Amino acid sequence: MKNLGEHAIVIGASMGGLLAARALSDFYTTVTVLERDAFPAADIPRKGVPQGRHTHGLLARGSAVLEEFFPGYNNEVVAQSGGLLGDVANDVTWIGRNVTLANGKSDLIGLLASRPVLEGHLRRRLLGLPNVRAIENCVVRGLVTDRARKSVTGVRIRVEGRLEETVNADLVVDASGRGSNSAAWLEALGYQAPINEKVEVGIGYMTRTYRRRPTDLDGKLGMVVAGNAPNWRNGVMLAQENDSWIVSAGGFLGDDAPDNDQGFLAYLATLPTMEIHDVVASAEPLSDFRRYRYDSSLRRRYEKLTCFPGNYLVFGDAICSFNPVYGQGMTVAAQEALTLQQCLRASPNDLARRFFKAAAKVVDIPWDIAVGNDLRHPQVMGARPPMLRFINWYIGRLHLAATRDSTLATAFLKAINLTITPPSLLSPAIAWRVWRGSQRPAVSASLPAIEATRPTM
């Protein structure tokens, strides 16, 4: 790779920051990652990642990109930490629109492990590179620019126990997450802040880990229940390291699950399947209940800015953070890292404009998937143009057909795992299978006898 400069800085050492640093390591003599937290000695949740104690999904596309950047990463997580590799379409039960998609063997390989394990292995692999270093307990106070304020030349930092200092760099990348200060920093320099798009979802979910037994879920590695009328509640149970399950359940707009055994079980019983409920009812708890709230999906439109300082980029959740129930964040960050690598390989000139334009295309698909599906909920505010209403109707028909057609189910899972584009689901071959299969009654997610015995909430 060609050398584009002596020093690059990445603000933030979460998954996005680590991946951005990996992309930069091929082009800069030294890459420094600045992190507000202290890294834990073991792979345990840390303060700077509040969602780290909750369910995470590394989509098949994300797993593939991590493997590309760090060969052997997936098997390392399995061998050293007890993570699990599985066929997303065959080893996990998917329930959407209140029906169960047919399982079938596929090439969609997903990695199951807790967020601290995924991040810990990635951080160690990154810091094992000879030209990458990290500074912990480091707060970034602001940007340093040239006299004309046309280019960023470094950052002002305060490391715990030391005075404020300036660190110079040829490129600074803000990967500090949804709480990024970039918009305020830009305005302080005389630049316009990006336009924000926000979709209020009011998602809240409760999470707990349990002992996993080989017979649970008939040996499957997980179950994912997507929210749907009448109650729009989500549920997920995924196998994790150390023979454990992580279980999360929640709903929209304040419909939170209770944080006690009886209430949590009653909440799980309102899902369109009793399988998660039945496992939890007899499983050994391994943690306390933990709550997480997420008010809105947020997208900052940096690609629409006409003026932006040189030698500066914004990355990952600092550009866009999605409703977490779709598990897209880590995979989108991985794809943005590939995009950054491609932009740097092509040319260092006009980098911000080219990167933001390319990153917007990466974000478009998962944003449309998440927001489009959230807007099926009648109380979520947002425009619902005719095409969106048609797509949501069509995906509903696809679900009905996919209860008996594993080819259709796998095609849908490839789209939400970001390995194919959603428009491919409208191809003539897929549309024919949807039309043919949706003429027959769907396979429901649960038996009517069970439905009749459920408590009302």
Overview of the molecule:
With about 450 residues, the chain is of the alpha/beta class. Among the domains are: about 5-60 and about 115-195 and about 300-370, FAD/NAD(P)-binding domain, CATH 3.50.50.60; about 200-295, Alpha-Beta Plaits (2-Layer Sandwich). Helices cover about 35% and strands about 25% of the residues. The strands form four sheets. Strands 5-4-13-14-15-12-16-18 form an eight-stranded mixed β-sheet, with helices on both faces. The chain has a five-stranded parallel β-sheet with strand order 7-2-1-11-17. A three-stranded antiparallel β-sheet has the order 8-9-10, with no helix packed on it. Helix 3 crosses helix 4. The longest helix is centred in the last third of the chain and has 24 residues, at about 350-375. The protein starts with a strand and ends with a helix.
- CATH class category of the domain at 5-58 and 113-195 and 301-369: Alpha Beta
Kindly state the number of beta strands.
18
Uncertain parts: 447-457
| Biggest pleated sheet | 8 strands, mixed
The secondary-structure class comes to: alpha/beta
How much of the sequence lies in strands comes to: 15-25%
DSSP helix count?
A: 13
Architecture of the domain at 5-58 and 113-195 and 301-369, according to CATH?
Answer: 3-Layer(bba) Sandwich
- Rg, Å, rounded: 22 Å
CATH superfamily of the domain at 5-58 and 113-195 and 301-369: FAD/NAD(P)-binding domain
Mean pLDDT: 94
CATH topology of the domain at 5-58 and 113-195 and 301-369: FAD/NAD(P)-binding domain
How far is the N terminus from the C terminus? 59 Å
Strand order of the largest sheet: 5-4-13-14-15-12-16-18
Fraction of residues in helix: 25-40%
- The gross shape turns out to be globular
